[in-house]
Write a structure and sequence with these properties.
The chain has helices at 26-46, 114-128, and strands at residues 6-23, 57-61, 74-80, 94-110, 139-142, 153-161. It is of the alpha+beta class. It has one domain: Alpha-Beta Barrel (Multidrug-efflux Transporter 1 Regulator Bmrr, Chain A), CATH 3.20.80. It has a 6-stranded antiparallel barrel. It is globular. It starts with 5 loop residues before the first strand and ends with a strand.
């Protein structure tokens, strides 16, 4: 089983995000994610929302795949934004924020290892730690660009909402 480099906790205070939501299986999401990220980046660039030092790219998982039917899974591509200017939702682009305390698993993983990393955080770490999960969405934060093939690895942080 894949293990994290380390696990830490982090508290986010109203971190603004823009996102595009997809509904369907994770396989279908992966087929559409590049197009969705391109749309997200285009909107962010056109509205001067990208801060090369502080903007982060995320994938947000709204549903539990063990409970929700595959065709009803909601998954979003997202970007943190630091701008205080008012943003108008347009087309597929939505605005929200993320807040609260998170356990953060810091991983170096290949494209094939994402599911194993998620399983580690929920099946290994969460059951052994004293933390309790809180009702909020978990997400991946891409520290480096996700791998373009199944051999390359990248650094990805998995955020699990906890109390």
């Amino acid at each position: 089983m894949i293990k994290p480099i380390s696990i830490s906790t982090e508290t986010l205070e109203n971190q603004k995000i823009i996102y595009i939501r997809f509904k369907g299986s994770y396989t279908e999401f992966r087929k559409n994610s590049r197009k969705m990220f391109n749309e997200l980046f285009k909107f962010a660039s056109e509205n001067n929302l990208v801060d090369k030092e502080r903007s982060k790219v995320l994938t947000i998982y709204d549903d539990n795949p063990f409970i929700t039917k595959e065709n009803n899974l909601r998954t979003s591509v997202a970007m943190t934004i630091v701008s205080d200017k008012e943003i108008i939702e347009k087309g597929n682009i939505c605005i929200s924020s993320i807040s609260g305390k998170f356990a953060v698993g810091h991983f170096e993983i290949s494209a094939r290892e994402y599911a194993d990393a998620w399983n580690y955080m929920y099946e290994e770490w969460l059951f052994k730690d004293k933390s309790k999960i809180r009702d909020a969405v978990p997400f991946e934060l891409f520290v480096t660009e996700p791998p373009k093939n199944y051999k390359d690895k990248s650094f990805t942080d998995i955020y699990i909402p906890i109390n």
